[in-house]
Design brief:
Largest sheet: 8 strands, antiparallel, barrel
Helix content: 10-25%
Mean pLDDT: 76
Number of domains: 2
Number of helices: 4
Strand content: 35-45%
Radius of gyration: 26 Å
CATH class of the largest domain: Mainly Beta
Order of helices and strands: HHHEEEHEEEEE
Low-confidence stretches: 1-36, 41-54
Distance between the termini: 68 Å
Number of strands: 8
Structural class: alpha+beta
CATH architecture of the largest domain: Beta Barrel
Length: 166
């Protein structure tokens, strides 16, 4: 019985101050519930919850929708950027866009998405954007004006790089 009360005293501060008036049967039930409030459980729970479900890394080379271009997403001091590596269309005007940074200032949000801006060179406009990770090989880039409801999305696919090509 003294063992039970010593454990009860340890949890008394964080759970409830009315334990002194509870009878023995209720103490037994509360002892089982208290196991879930142990410091190890609480730390583990918050540690696991701090990782979003889709927190895969977005850095790498991505093939845009319809395979029109390749974009390299890279990180610089916790902020993500994307530059054009290759464009399918071979006209001189379009090829000038190679090397251009079109994704700027993307920050990783708590929900696992990334928020920043995207420059659409063919429109010569910059839009707010959100990148959502579908899985380790697909991301969805949504450019929008004002709110995300008024926007357009593209699904990009991660490029597979052979070790021989490096």
């Amino acid at each position: 019985m003294s063992n039970l009360f010593s454990k009860l005293t340890l949890y008394n501060i964080s759970v409830n101050n009315n334990f002194a008036t509870v009878n023995y049967n209720h103490i037994k039930m509360n002892k089982i519930k208290l196991r879930f409030c142990s410091p190890i459980f609480i730390v583990t729970f918050f540690f696991l919850c701090s990782f979003p479900a889709n927190s895969q890394d977005i850095t790498g080379i991505w093939l845009t929708e319809k395979s029109e271009s390749k974009i390299e997403i890279y990180e610089d001091n916790g902020i993500f950027f994307g530059k054009v590596l290759w464009i399918k269309e071979q006209t001189e005007k379009v090829q000038k866009r190679v090397g251009m940074t079109i994704l700027k200032n993307f920050v990783h949000l708590k929900d696992g998405s990334y928020k920043g801006t995207v420059f659409a060179p063919h429109l010569d406009k910059t839009f707010n954007a959100v990148i959502t990770v579908k899985n380790e090989n697909e991301i969805v880039l949504r450019g929008y004006v004002g709110i995300s409801l008024f926007g357009q999305s593209q699904t990009w696919e991660r490029m597979k790089i052979n070790k021989n090509q490096e």
